[in-house]
Amino acid sequence: MVPSEESQLVPKEDMFWSCRQSIFDEMKKKFSQIESAADEPRVLCIIQDTTNSKTVNERVTLNLPASTPLRRLFEDVASKVGYVNGTFDLVWGNGVSVADMTPLEQSSDKSILDAGFEPGKKNFLHLTDKDGEQPHIMSQESSSTDDGTQDRFIGPLPREGSVGCTSDYVSQNYSYSSILSKSETGYVGLVNQAMTCYLNSLLQTLFMTPEFRNALYKWEFEESEEDPVTSIPYQLQRLFVLLQTSKKRAIETTDVTRSFGWDSSEAWQQHDVQELCRVMFDALEQKWKQTEQADLINQLYQGKLKDYVRCLECGYESWRIDTYLDIPLVIRPYGSNQAFASVEEALHAFIQPEILDGPNQYFCERCKKKCDARKGLRFLHFPYLLTLQLKRFDFDYTTMHRIKLNDRMTFPEELDMGTFIDVEDEKSPQTESCTDSGAENEGSCHSDQMSNDFSNDDGVDEGICLETNSGAERISKVGSEKNSLLYELFSVMVHSGSAAGGHYYACIKSFSDDQWYSFNDQHVSKITQEDIKKTYGGSSGSRGYYSSAFASSTNAYMLIYRLKDSTRNAKFLEAHEYPEHIKQLVQKERELEEQEKRQREIERNTCKIKLFCMHPVKQIMMENKLEVHKDKTLKEAVEIAYKIMDLEEAVPLDCCRLVKYDEFHDYLERSYEGEEDTPMGILLGGVKSTYMFDLLLETKRPDQVFQCYKPGEVMVKVHVVDLKTESVAPPISVRAYLNQTVTEFKQLISKATHLPAETMRVVLERCYNDLRLLNVANKTLKAEGFFRSNKVFVESSESLDCHMTYTDSQLWKLLDRHANTIRLYVSLPEQSPGSQFKRTVYQKASGDSASAEHRELENQIQISDPENFQSEERSDSDVNNDRSTSSVDSDILSSSHSSDTLCNVENAPVPLANGLDSHSITSSRRSKANEGKKDTWDTAEEDSGTDSEYDESGKSRGEAQYMFFKAEPCAADEGSGEGQKWLMVHVDKRITLSAFKQHLEPFVGVPSSHFKVFRVYASNQEFESVRLNETLSSFSDDNKITIRLGRALKKGEYRVKVYQLLVNETEPCKFLLDAVFAKGMTVRQSKEELLPQLREQCGLDLTIDRFRLRKKTWKNPGTVFLDYHIYEEDINISSNWEVFLEILDGAEKMKSMSQLAVLSRRWRPSAMKLDSFQEVVLESSSVDELKEKLSEISGIPLENIEFAKGRGTFPCDISVLEIHQDLDWNPKVSTLNVWPLYICDDGAVIFYRDKTEELMELTDEQRNELMKKESSRLQKTGHRVTYSPRKEKALKIYLDGAPNKDLTQD
Fold it and tell me: Where do the segments described as Disordered lie (predicted)?
């Protein structure tokens, strides 16, 4: 060691401590930085990339300091997602439409906190296209993403709710920068209108077909000859031009579908893409008649085949020529559970002949006898563009469902069709016969009528043409053309889903670069040959012949190949090769797109906010929408609002101003003094889709001055109370601060009302019926419960009332009454009978001098015990019974448990669902007989009549209590009957119905027990109010009430609607009358009370043993009520109950609850008719007893009796053309109360027949005539003629625009 070096060494111990100190200093510095950073709030940003289908479900999360500038936020996002900064926008993603949002300022140095980001919360952002263009991907040099992470994608998109979406097609090594966007693929997608994915797939395929696109461009539209809106070729031209030149990610197809004659409903109909292809080609052929493109479809897509039958004995062949646009290939042969493995196998099977032998022998014209023959198809000519349809949709006759076959079927990238031409049959020297047929072949083959001589068929230029040349020449031509029939695959239309529905998309190879792309609606992405193989199909698990009706998978449905022929294979036209009309169209579409872009930019900078204005003349609050550019000043915005509200003739412009307004609380937040030149974008806090406030266009008189509204103030509406006149004045608006004390607030009110503050009492109404006296002088308004908008009542007199306890004071009583008083309009009956009460007669002011202008009653009203005033004792049965009340008005049920009953204005019955629940009328009589106990779950013991105002002596009950009531006559409404009298009643809504009726007695002229109260609703339906002990709390201002004369219900009484049951009439249910049944009454007693009413009101002169009462469930007759049954003990009864009255032909056969009464009807198949109903009373539920009874009444031998239960609502009508086969005849059961009959109650319908009776044979004419009669009969009764499932709407393209609406179609 050199001594000089040794002198420079540091001892080891000193070096150790020096290093340790430096480490500590560094750590201390870092901790200090962390500590200071921890003090700053951080903002959590969650960014969703909405520019690409692959990224829509991905999120980028950034946790940034609150001081981070927006500029840095954009840089961090760009780095994170791999986009070039400046090629994308960030907008708020709070759940609203992205199109309505304003982008954040990219180059701003404003902190994210100042930009509206909230620390401690999730701030959602959407990454969107900038100016309609996709973000640019960072170059590989600037991106750290490895090439190996390139993501390959093939649909369907992994979006929530998509049918058949699987994760098999989504690469797991996800990377933002590797996503293929429009800017990379160069292709534009198509927007799915709703269910138009099948259309998008076909349109993209046609667009990517050079021969079709070029030919379409060469066609020129003549506007003078046709409307461009309805021209299908022109709209296709426009669409193709946009697909080629647009900068958008996706374009709409609405113009194309409009040219089809479709309306918006067609967008919700999914159709078969092969069906659309055929229909669209037909439409184009019609539109292109007499043009250069007239034969384009046939030249590109049409092939020919021969359908032949050859005798195996003499070789004679009969044949016809068919044309086809596509070849349908079956997936599985019928009856086989093994699918064809490939398209080649399916093609061989397509041309495989079948042998006609045995009973299927063919009659040979040459042999003049039936001979064995061979029947098959032979391809004569293959088209330039070969379309193969894989028939994946089938019908399962076992389950009667459409199904989809998801079996694996491979298809080659290159297909040699030369192998499918068989020349063996061409060597036959036998004479051939041509059979002309106008019928189309099954699948997609069209028929041509051709002669034996093919020499003039110029259309056959590929494949095999059977001309009348020598066999050697034909074979030579076959051999040469077989070698030229090599096709390359360029389009695979894929279906994802099941037979019930799904999604189409297309995988298409570009002839420009031989690259495969997935065209999935608006998303276009690169894919590979491996992705194409994934569309072969196939699913796991073994299946039988048919798969499930709802099995879902993703597989190829249509394949399109192009012939490989260098002399015919075209390339896409370059821009300089476009015809002149296409160049003009391109320029026109570019200008339209630029104009749309400018308009979109204006929209993105337009503030849209609700605008209100109290009209200075009409004094009504008007509402509109103010749309103003963010750069417009406040002064300019006032001018716009002034014109929107149409105030030119009402008030000068300088008497108007805009103020910040909260419509919900009716609160003026602030005014904008001195900010007339401030842009609206700054005043409103930027352009937003929704604002948390509104604007009010405030007006004033020319001699007035606008009040200044400062932020932080609260609005108070002050009502002055006068105890002497017991009046409450209209409100005066006062603005205060929440930190003001009650004393300061009184001084403020004193200035506005000129009342002395020293004696002032202030009462705050915080919410309904919450009146709070502000008596703590130093308490702030905020502590007292003031909010943005408030209501107070003030009184400042020197009366003794101010020294009383607040709740005992006259002020409290007056305010309490004011808060609970409502205004009702009461319609009085036109005429009233003589009354023991003296009736007050109202006339107009110009009438009799004895008439009073109005009458006010403030009497002591006798009501129920105050302790039970607002709540009555209710049993479980009451609650259950409330369920059976009409659901037309929910506020009755929720607030007052009312059992108001429904009737219409004309007092005619309205059918309700209260009879639909069998328990709502009575529990099953059979279960009662078995259990021997009463089922009371729907008992109405305390219903309706419980709260009677009368006791047994007929006197009023209750204690005296003051309730406000004031009535005065008013003018009748428009449309009301002449002579009808109306009262305007101001009444305390805490009054009971009983007391309310007593107040009305002088005006009606009869006791309250002799008139009824009906509440009228907006639909003019009326509900009778019958719960006398309930209050009017469910009523509100300006509700209408109708008074009708008639006896009101007493305790334990129920109003019942009585209908007559006419089992053999066309309408078996006829309303008779309204009756009153009482708790404890027997059925016989109710029948006795009905007799005089039936005689007087219905003209039915009956004896008590000549009719019965029975349960009514909608229109179905049910349990027969026996005379000794007691209401509420044996029969559950409720308000608005309905019951059947049935007139008997003889003595009553029903004597016991164990008996069963069914209605039988004989079917006579030999006469095709049904007999009338006959009642059969059974002692048990035995099927044998039923058959014996049916045999007795019909004379049919017991062993020949067959029966079936009727379906549906009584009378269970069914067509005589269906009854013999459609009903479940002779079920294998021994009792009636088990499946499938379930006959446990009276009233079931039984059809029966003689099984030895043959069904009448009908001619077609007789059947059609009978079908018309039955259809007419069943439609009159409202029953169905036959079951017909909803049919799919046929796909049609209308050449003359929209279709004529056929009103007869469903």
Answer: 128-160, 425-452, 836-954
Q: Name, in order, each residue with C-beta under 8 angstroms of 934's C-beta and a sequence gap of 6 or more.
A: 928, 1129, 1130
* pLDDT tens track for 175-205: 333 333 454 788 999 999 988 999 999 999 9
Q: What per-residue confidence (pLDDT) applies to 135?
A: 82
Joined together, the tokens standing for residue 1062 give 């006419």
Q: How confident is the model at residue 54 (pLDDT cuts 50, 70, 90)?
A: low
Query: For 717, how many CA atoms within 13 A lie in the half-sphere containing its CB?
Result: 14
User: Which segments of 1047-1130 does DSSP mark as H helices, in order?
Assistant: 1083-1093
Q: Which residues pair with residue 613 across a beta bridge? A: 622
Strands 694-699 and 606-614: parallel
The structure tokens listed for 886 are: 């009409």
Measured in Å, how far apart are the chain's first and last C-alpha atoms? 109
- Where do runs of H (alpha helix) occur along 343-484? 343-351, 471-482
How many residues in the chain? 1306
| Sign of the CA dihedral running 470, 475, 481, 487 | positive
Catalytic residues, by residue number, are: 197, 503
Contact 1215, 1274 (CB under 8 A): yes
CA angle 1245, 1247, 1253 (to 5 degrees): 175
Half-sphere exposure of 1070 (CA within 13 A, CB side): 14
Q: Per-residue DSSP letters for 535-566?
A: GG---SS---SS--TT--EEEEEEEEEEE--T
Q: Which two tokens stand for residue 176?
A: 């933002």
Q: In what order do the strands lie in the sheet with 1245-1250?
A: 1169-1178, 1156-1164, 1245-1250, 1201-1205
Helices and strands counted in the chain (H then E): 27, 54
Q: How confident is the model at residue 16 (pLDDT cuts 50, 70, 90)?
A: low
* Alpha carbons 304 and 460: distance in angstroms, whole number: 8
Whole-number Å distance between alpha carbons of 174 and 82: 12
Which tens digit of pLDDT belongs to each residue from 401-453?
Answer: 888 888 999 999 999 998 887 544 444 434 444 444 333 333 333 333 333 33
Q: Backbone phi, then psi, for 575, in 5-degree steps?
A: -60, -40
Task: Please enumerate in sequence order all residues whose Cβ is within 8 A of that of 12, keeping only pairs 6 or more positions apart, or say none.
Answer: none
Q: What is the mean pLDDT of the chain?
A: 77
